[in-house]
Amino acid sequence: MQLILDLLVPGIIAGVSLYGTVQGVDVYDALLQGAAKGLEILWRILPALVTLLTVVAMLRASGALELAAKALAPVCDLFGIPAETVGLMLVRPISGSAALGVGSELITAYGPDSTIGRTAAVMLGSTETTFYTIAVYFGAAGIKKTRYAIPAALCADLTGFFFAALTVRLLFG
Question: Hey, CA dihedral for 161, 167, 170, 172, is it positive or negative?
């Protein structure tokens, strides 16, 4: 089984190369063209990605996320969401790596089998890094105006946060 897994990626590459050669495609030239297009896309979306990561780092370093978490705690309690997860809910739509860091801190502090740890894990799995995703995909497609995409995606994130907390309460009490 391990041998099959070790040969899977090289086998796919060899199979695609062989298929392209049989079809009369210059596989090497196609690879170079694809790499060039990938670099063009990276060049277009890099400023947005750097900006998002910088904003998240600044918010965390300044303590603004902790202040927002304290301010939003009463609203979260009203909906049955652990107040400790507010920081995760604020950073998740912006940065997946920052959200993973916050989630890891919550799980380390409260334990993986705690309500807070489980809620954080389910939140990480049931929501998206909205602004990152929109920056990457809309930037790659050259779309400048997002129109309703951001409000709809943030509503989906809020729904995911609420139902993550509800699911953990229902399944684990």
Answer: negative
Helix/strand/coil (H/E/C) assignment for every residue in the chain: CHHHHHHHHHHHHHHHHHHHHHCCCCHHHHHHHHHHHHHHHHHHHHHHHHHHHHHHHHHHHHCHHHHHHHHHHHHHHHCCCCHHHHHHHHHCCCCHHHHHHHHHHHHHHHCCCCHHHHHHHHHHHHCCCHHHHHHHHHHHHCCCCCCCHHHHHHHHHHHHHHHHHHHHHHHHC
Model-level pTM? 0.67
pLDDT tens digits for the chain (173 residues)? Answer: 788 888 899 999 899 889 989 999 898 898 899 899 988 888 877 887 777 778 777 877 898 877 888 888 899 888 999 988 988 898 899 888 778 888 888 999 999 999 999 999 999 999 998 988 888 888 888 888 888 999 999 999 999 999 999 999 999 98
Contact present, 163 and 126 (Cβ < 8 Å): yes
Helices 64-78 and 27-62: crossing angle in degrees, nearest 10, is: 90
Q: Per this entry, what is the length of the chain? A: 173
The two structure tokens encoding residue 70: 């304290």
State the Rg of the chain over Cα: 21
